[in-house]
Amino acid sequence: MQVAELRIPDDRIGALIGKEGEIKKRIEERTGCRIKINSKTGIVTIEGEEAIGFLKARNLINAVAHGFSPEVAMKLLDEFSILEVIDLTDYVPDSALHRVKGRIIGKEGKVRRAIEEMLNVNISIYGKTVAIIGDPDATGAAREAIMMLVEGAQHSTVQRFLERKRRDLKFRSYDWRDVI
User: Do 89 and 158 share a structural domain?
Assistant: First the structure.
């Protein structure tokens, strides 16, 4: 039996529980884990027998804690999806956090949307973190694009990088046995 405790922000507890506990029940059913949520402390306890279900439940709850909707976080139950969390305070001081988050989001969400659409990932910018859900290659490329923005790269440079990465990922996804 594996047991883990996660602390989630108070404003994310309702999203994790869902209307009449439906989200919590769905996570328990899909992962085979028991989940206890203390809404006063924000501590979520996960108990599971099977390692894979346990890890998926932990990742899913972590994704909800980092601002994803439960529906988007459920993508982590897919065999090929991962969660990557970037703590911006590791790279920029608190005084620059607002500016850097603004660069990642872009005017009217344009930059964030471009990353999501070009790489087929989901991005959540919540608190002092940026979280990404997607397949491993696309998530790595999205992380690279976000780090370019954090380090001050021009938006046009990041756009060209995304276009190149999208071509590379599409090229890799071809099954060359069908061509030959």
Answer: yes
